[in-house]
Specification:
- The complex is a heterodimer of chains A (304) and B (223).
- Chain A is of the alpha+beta class.
- Chain A is 68% helix and 8% strand.
- Chain A has 2 domains: 187 residues, no CATH class; 80 residues, no CATH class.
- In chain A, strands 2-3-1-4 form a 4-stranded antiparallel beta sheet.
- With 223 residues, chain B is an alpha/beta fold.
- Chain B has a single domain, classed as 3-Layer(aba) Sandwich (Rossmann fold), CATH 3.40.50.300.
- Helices cover 35% and strands 26% of the residues of chain B.
- Classes of the chains: A alpha+beta (304), B alpha/beta (223).
- Chains A and B meet through helix 2 and helix 8 of A and helix 2 and helix 3 of B.
- Chain B: GO terms for molecular function: ATP binding; ATP hydrolysis activity; transmembrane transporter activity.
C-alpha cells in the first residue's frame, strides 16, 4: 500500500512538475507537434482496435452460446408426407432426453430466413422448401448419434444439423479476429513508443548545449531527463486524449444495422465497453514516460 | 580539495601533458598561465570532472574521479563554481534564472529568493536581471557567469580566462570580486594569460602562479 501511495505521489509530482526545471529546456515546436500528432493518430487507431476486439469477442461469445444450445432438423419429404413426417419428428424430439423444446418454423419465419437471398413475397407453396424444426437443448444436451439413428428409422426425410460443422470455424474466426485486435493494439503501443523515442532523441540532440550547461552547473541525469520525460508524457497523453475522443465519435456514428446487420455494423461499443477507450490516454502517457525516460538516459550516457 | 597526481592527458592520440601534479589547498588563490594551446582549459576541465585523465589520479574532494559515476561527478560539481571562457548560458532564460540555475538543479531553489537580488547587486547586474544573455555585453556576461558560479557558495571557484573579453576596468572589477570570494575562504583557480591582472591580484592577495608549458607544470613562477 505504501508502495502504491509512493508511486501515486511520484506520478502526481511528475504531472504537477517543476515549472522552473521545465523551463531549463526551451520549447521544441517540431517534436511537440510530432508527438501530439503521433499520439492522436495512434489513439484514434487504438479505439478501432479495441472496438474490433470487443465486437469480435461479443460475436464469438454469442455464436458459442446461442448456437451451442440449438440445432435444426430439416425435413425434405414429398408434399403429401411432409405434415406426417413433421409430426413424427416432433414426437421423437419430445421423447428425446436433453431436448428442452422443439417447434416447426412457420411459413413466415422460413420466408424471413430466405428473404435476404430471394427477396420478399417468396411463394413458399410453389417451391420445394424443406420444413425446418428448431430444437433447443437442455443444459445437459442430447445424444446426437442416438437421435440421428432414431430419426433415420422413424422419419426418413429428416436431417439433423447441430451447427457444429459451421459454428466452430465461425467461432474460431471470431476469436482470431479478437486476438488480431489485441495484437494491433500492442503494435500501436510499440509504434507509439518508437515514434516518441525518435522525437525525444531528436529533442535531446537539439538541446545538446542546454544539456551541457545543465551538467556544468551540477545537474544529474535524472534532473535533465525529467524535463524531457514530463514534457513528452503530457504531450502524448494530451494527443491521445484528442485521438481517443475523435475515435469514439467515429465509432459512435458508425451505422447500426440492428438485428439485420452483419459483423461490420456491429463494430462498436456496448454498455461498459464505452469506458474501455478511457484507458488509452493514460496508457499513452505511461508509454511515453518509459520511452522518453529510456531514450533520455541512454542519450545522456552517450553524451557524457 | 582537488588534487591531480601524476596526471597525463592525451588528445587525439597526442600527449597534451603528462606527469602533472597539482593540489588546490583550501583557501588558496592560484593562477594558471601558459601559452595558448598549452592545455590550460583541459587542466581546468580535469579539475571539475568535465574530462577524465588518460592516466594518473584526479581526486575531487577525496574521491578518485575515475571511479566516480555521473551522479557523483554532478554532486562534486555543485561544490565547484566554474566561470567559463564563453560563459555558457541558457540563452532562452533571463539572466536572473541563469544565475539561479545551480540552486535550481541542486533542489535549493528556495534559497535563491534572498540571495539572488543581493548577488545581482554585488556583480552590478540588478538592472539586467530580466534580460536574456545574448542581450548582455561581454563584461556583463562575465559578471553574470561569476554570479552563477558562486550562488551555491561553492568550496572552489575555477575561472577560465574570466577577463578575456573585457576591458581593463572590468577586469579589475572581476578580480576584486574573486579576491573578495577568496577572503571569504573560497579556493580560487584562475587560468589567465593576462600578466597585468596577475600582478594586480598579487598586490591584493597571496597568489601562487603556475605555468603550463611544453606539457609540464611549473609552480611558484615569478613574474
Amino acid at each position: 500500500m505504501d508502495r502504491i501511495s509512493e508511486l501515486t505521489a511520484r506520478a502526481l509530482a511528475l504531472l504537477g512538475g517543476d515549472p522552473q526545471a521545465d523551463r531549463a529546456v526551451p520549447p521544441t515546436g517540431f517534436t511537440a507537434r510530432l508527438t501530439l500528432f503521433t499520439a492522436a493518430a495512434m489513439a484514434f487507431l487504438a479505439v478501432f482496435a479495441i472496438a474490433l476486439s470487443l465486437a469480435t469477442g461479443r460475436l464469438a461469445d454469442r455464436w458459442s452460446a446461442e448456437l451451442a444450445r440449438t440445432a435444426t432438423l430439416r425435413i425434405s419429404a414429398p408434399a403429401d408426407q411432409a405434415d406426417a413426417q413433421v409430426r413424427a419428428a416432433l414426437t421423437v424430439l419430445e421423447q428425446t432426453p436433453g431436448v428442452a423444446s422443439a417447434r416447426a418454423l412457420s411459413d413466415d419465419e422460413e420466408r424471413a430466413l430466405l428473404e435476404p437471398w430471394f427477396g420478399p413475397d417468396l411463394p413458399l407453396d410453389a417451391l420445394p422448401i424443406p420444413q425446418l424444426i428448431e430444437i433447443v437443448e437442455t443444459a445437459d444436451g442430447y445424444d446426437a448419434t442416438g437421435l440421428r439413428a432414431r430419426l433415420q428409422a422413424e422419419v426418413p426425410g429428416a436431417v439433423l444439423d447441430d451447427h457444429t460443422r459451421w459454428r466452430q470455424p465461425l467461432v474460431t474466426a471470431a476469436n482470431r479476429l479478437r486476438m488480431l485486435g489485441w495484437v494491433a493494439l500492442a503494435l500501436i503501443g510499440g509504434a507509439t513508443a518508437a515514434m516518441i523515442t525518435l522525437a525525444a532523441q531528436s529533442a535531446l540532440a537539439a538541446n545538446a548545449q542546454v544539456i551541457r550547461v545543465l551538467r556544468l552547473v551540477g545537474a544529474r541525469d535524472t534532473y535533465i531527463a525529467r524535463a524531457f520525460v514530463r514534457r513528452f508524457t503530457l504531450r502524448a497523453a494530451a494527443g491521445a486524449a484528442l485521438g481517443t475522443l475523435l475515435g469514439v465519435m467515429a465509432v459512435a456514428i458508425l451505422p447500426d444495422g440492428g438485428d439485420a446487420g452483419g459483423f461490420l455494423t456491429g463494430l462498436g461499443f456496448t454498455g461498459l465497453g464505452w469506458l474501455a477507450p478511457l484507458m488509452i490516454p493514460p496508457l499513452a502517457g505511461v508509454t511515453a514516460f518509459f520511452a522518453t525516460r529510456a531514450a533520455a538516459l541512454r542519450t545522456l550516457r552517450t553524451q557524457s | 580539495m582537488i588534487e591531480l597526481s601524476d596526471v597525463a592527458y592525451n588528445y587525439g592520440g597526442a600527449e597534451l601533458f603528462s606527469g602533472l601534479s597539482l593540489a588546490l589547498a583550501p583557501g588558496s588563490f592560484q593562477f594558471l598561465t601558459g601559452p595558448s594551446g598549452a592545455g590550460k582549459t583541459t587542466l581546468l576541465k580535469l579539475c571539475y570532472g568535465d574530462l577524465r585523465a588518460t592516466s594518473g589520479v584526479v581526486s575531487l574532494f577525496g574521491q578518485n574521479a575515475a571511479q566516480m559515476n555521473r551522479d557523483e561527478i554532478a554532486l562534486a560539481r555543485r561544490r565547484i563554481g566554474v566561470v567559463h571562457q564563453d560563459c555558457q548560458f541558457l540563452d532562452h532564460l533571463p539572466v536572473a534564472e541563469n544565475i539561479a540555475l545551480p540552486l535550481q538543479v541542486a533542489g535549493r531553489a528556495n534559497e535563491a529568493e534572498g540571495n539572488l537580488d543581493e548577488l545581482l547587486a554585488w556583480v552590478g547586474l540588478s538592472a539586467q536581471a530580466g534580460q536574456l544573455p545574448p542581450e548582455l555585453s561581454g563584461g556583463e556576461r562575465q559578471r553574470a557567469a561569476l554570479a552563477r558560479a558562486v550562488i551555491t557558495s561553492p568550496d572552489v571557484i575555477i575561472a577560465d580566462e574570466p577577463t578575456g573579453n573585457v576591458d581593463w576596468e572590468m577586469s579589475q572589477r572581476l578580480l576584486t570580486l574573486l579576491v573578495e570570494l577568496n577572503r571569504m575562504g573560497k579556493t580560487v583557480l584562475i587560468a589567465s594569460h593576462d600578466l597585468n591582472l596577475i600582478r594586480a591580484a598579487k598586490a591584493q592577495v597571496s597568489a601562487n602562479v603556475l605555468r603550463l608549458k611544453g606539457g609540464r607544470l611549473q609552480a611558484g613562477v615569478a613574474l
